[in-house]
Fold:
Amino acid sequence: MIRGENITVRFGDKMVLDHLTVSVPAQGLTFLSGPSGAGKTTLLRVLAGLLVPETGRVFLPGRPVLLFQEDRLFPGLTVRRQVEAVLPKARRREAEGWLELVELSGAGDKLPQELSGGMARRAALARTLAVEGEVYLLDEPFAGVDLARAGRILDRLRGLGKPIFLTGHAPELEGQCDRRVEIGDGR
Structure:
């Protein structure tokens, strides 16, 4: 079970998460939905351990890995090298498999400045997935990616057999997930 219990986060006077409690099975795809500013990114950062809540506790079945909203690609590295950079030397051949998963196998030799926005997003996703973790927290993984491609990638993510939380603004993708958690007014 993945559980966030009584989580409160404020930024100054602004209450972002207000004693939020969420509990989901430690398997499958969970879509965090809600309007911009509802606290989705904040919840992912709390789950990842990057933000300590004012109150509350988090229970995860292992190490979380977070895909940030920003691509954060290394400017001088090709797409393939972006992925290889997070892999141990003995496993660098696996990079091509991660690029295939996100439909970037033909772009491995491109630099970040040669990518469209959706391609850069998929490169960042491939790099994140290559990091060994037990829970993936994906903040807007399909920003700039067409819906058909995002749907195919989402199906492949399910095949990883790990719990995955993702955010986004495409209701069509929500329907492909196992469950939806709605966040509004920090609850």
